[in-house]
Automatic annotation (TrEMBL):
Keyword Phosphoprotein attributed: no
Enzyme Commission number: 2.4.-.-
InterPro entries recorded: Glyco_trans_2-like, Glycosyltransf_2, Nucleotide-diphossugar_trans
Highest rank taxon of the organism: Bacteria
Domain Glycosyltransferase 2-like: 49-209
Alphabetized UniProt keyword annotations: Glycosyltransferase, Transferase
Pfam families: Glycos_transf_2
Gene3D superfamilies per record: Spore Coat Polysaccharide Biosynthesis Protein SpsA, Chain A (3.90.550.10)
Source organism of the structure: Rhodanobacter humi
Name of the protein this chain belongs to: Glycosyltransferase
Entry's Gene Ontology molecular function annotations: glycosyltransferase activity
Amino acid sequence: MAAHLYHDQIGISHSELSQREYRRWLESHDRASVLSSSGGSVQQQTLISVLLPVYNTPPDVLIACLESVLAQTCGRWELCISDDASTRRDTADVLVRYAGRDPRIRIEKRASNGHISAATNTALAMAGGEFVALLDHDDLLHPDAILEVVTAACANPEWHLIYTDEDKLDRRGRRSDPYFKPDYNPELLTAQNYISHLGVYRTAIVRELGGFQIGYEGCQDWDLALRFCERVGASAIGHIPKVLYHWRMSATSTAEDTSVKPYVQQVAMKVLTDHVRRVRPGASVRRLNWPYGAFRVQEGPPADEHVSVIVWEQAGQPIDCLGNMFETLGSTMSVEVIIPVNNGNIAKRWFGDHVPGALSLKVLGTTNTNPAESRNEAARMAKGSILVFVNKDIDAFSKGWLDELVAQARRPDIGVVGAKIYDPRGWVTDGAFVLGGAGGINVAFGGLDSAAVGPRARALHVQDVSAVSGACMAMRANVFHSIGGFSHASVESLVAADLCLRIRANGYRTIWTPYVELYMHEISGASPVQGQNVHGERAWLFQHYPKELLADPFYSTNLEATPAHFKLAT
């Protein structure tokens, strides 16, 4: 019950409590610039073409949208309006009136209704700006939207795609339900179009890609985002962590209820399947049985791998759970279990009674008391192409847990894979880490129970993270050895985070999968630094990773990092 109460208060619902919290936050964090539309030399360097497809928009809604563009504090924009053969005379009258007010507003009336993709392509053909910004006809731009985008584009000329945070306008015009987004998170983008609004794309590349694809209406923005990101790569994608777009909720909008457009789920499946075929051969897409619709990209079964599972046993304590773990393997992979211990005879005698006969058991007798070096020693002994490190107090209850870890770790761009770990109460206690805050490192989704979806359903999706727990982590052996394994010079509770950050510095990604669900037999308090000197560990992290601790790219500077509960930062 406590976990669900916490879940309800972090912006999943449109509760009055969350609206009040957000409005209080806006009072101190959302103040429009005082720049005039003609001021600032930076504004003269980049022209933004706002693409606005229109069809039978109610006049009051359309006027509010147009006024939000005219109210921009930066004047370097043009508004390219594609009227998709509207049949309402009052809609056409509003467009003509506003085009006469400002020469930056241009309109093209289509001869026939072609729906959203064709209409947006018409607006794209009109664009003369270096970037195009996508605006829906019933939404609003924040007054500083163009200013912030132009400033970011000038400061980061390598950026080809810029996106911002967003919120929603309820039927009474109140701002609510903010989405404080991560920086570019390629894994999360395969589960949801978090880029969405406000998305700003380099015009030449959009045209090179053929614009918006006909037949993808309803998910045309997601399709473009995926194709665009495939084309430009991570270094060309920038995020402005400010709420600069307001998505209007209405009876016909998916901002309020995704079920109002049921066809969108079929189109989303098509978009994601196309993407997977292009970039992840052998993977497949499954629609998950959740009311609001969600998808999972699943790798093919890793039946041909040889896997080495290295168990950290620690001072001869009994390994009281691994028998259950390996009974849930669910695959035909070749698996060896390596246990570096001080008392090999005791461990082997006990362990031999609990491991299925198909597994190969190796007990590494060692006098090394340093946990990092002991695991490195076991890794050097390992024969597997995939290394899986687990703590002795971890147990599995999801069948095929090792298949999922190995399938993800096999991917050439993935460096480390982590799991979703619960305490005996069924609450998330370990797994993905968020960097920053008073403790330096914090557990993402800590305190949620297994039924909770988390903020924006992120607790349900595979995603990029800065680091994962050493209680269960998998990686390719060649990646592990290429960076020298675990660093025995680091603080023990930070060994795993240090490894992830060093692997990331070598160009690999760290991902977390909720499809590997494990139990930790002891309650750890949802903190990887429990029982140790938090200040000393934070000092060590800042000494070695000062940039990474300033802001976790996969979290948000607008959210509290300690604990990492996705609540508004104060």
